[in-house]
Structures are given as C-alpha cells and as structure tokens.
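fold-stage: in
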Amino acid sequence: MSAVMLKLVVDEGVFSSVSDSLLVYPSAQIAFNTSSIRSYSNEHELEGIKEQVAGYLAKVQIEIRTTEDEYQAILEYLKMDHPRMECQYWVLPVLDSGKR
C-alpha cells in the first residue's frame, strides 16, 4: 500500500462544504492542508462581477496524504456528497516523507 498525495482544486465558494465533508469522512480520519490560489486561464469564463474585476477565479487547493487504495474512495465519496461540484485533481506518488 503506497502513499500518495491527492491534490484537489475546488472553487472557493464550495470549499467550506467540501472541508466539512472531509472532516466527517466515514472510512478514516483525513488530515489535509489547504492553500488559496488564483486561477488564470483563457479556457474559462469569469462568472461573477468580483471575478471579472479581479481577472481570475478564486480557488482552494486541498492536499490529502492518503494511500493508493483509499484515494479513489475519497473521490467517490466527494462525488456522492457534492454531485454538482467541479473539481480538478491530481494523484502524485509520495516517494519519501519525514520530519526533521
């Protein structure tokens, strides 16, 4: 069972409900880190007035250290809990980790 880093990018507007879902994930305790990001692209249309003025979409990146076996279950859980949510994700192998 190898460790992986699951990175999710969600709209800032749905972040609080997604984080609540992760905190009550039924199969295991999930610890995660978040960071606010600005999404710049000509592939999307800026929806709100605030986004149009700022010129970017406000997003939140969520990083979850989990396992190869568990990350798909987490994605399915979020899909069931938030069926209309659009989310980008990446799964990266954790080659090493530790504390110093």
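fold-stage: in (second)
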Amino acid sequence: MYRYFVSDHSRATDRFYVTLRQEFTRGVRLSKITERALSKACISANNNQLKSWDSGLKVERTGTGFTVNRLYRRPRQDRVPSVSLYHGPPREVMAFINGFVSAVAHTSLTSIESEHPHE
C-alpha cells in the first residue's frame, strides 16, 4: 500500500516536499477502493480543506486507472482550466488525495504561524 507524507520543508528553497512511501501490510485485509470512494474523498476535500483555494480536485476514470485533476474554480483566459496532477491505480490515487490534502493543511498551518510567530 502506498501513502503520501508531508516532509519538512527546505529552509533554503522554502518549499514543502511530499514523498511517496510504500508500506507493507501483512495479515491486514485491505478494502477495495472504488470510483465512488475516490469521488467522495475529492468532494470532502473540496468542501473542507480546499474551500479557500482557487481550485479543487476531481477524479476521472481512464483506461488504465484514475487521474486526479486540479480544476480552477474561476478560470482565467491566461491559464488552462485544469491540470493533471497524478495518474495511477485506485489505492495510489487515494493515497495521493490524502497526501495532497494533508500537505495543504500543513502548509496552511505553517503559513499562519509564520504570519503570527509570537501569538
């Protein structure tokens, strides 16, 4: 099973890094991840953690798996309306969505702390 984790950010470049780690699960029965579960994860993220963003996530089925797209809520003429972020099997796509959302939450918390360091 794959999971995405937010790494500490590099102070030199001031960027956050998200890494993919493969976790081995022995003796644990893993539930099947369906297209409906992926769609619900995107809807939940769009209505909660990504609500203040100018874009949201959408999952589309392709011939060989699923694709996660970033859709801009108010498209502009100088920017494409969507960007493909990740393509893979259902488990990896779910891990990507969870990692993306946790990275957004982590980035939001650190940006608030950097704006108000002594509160």
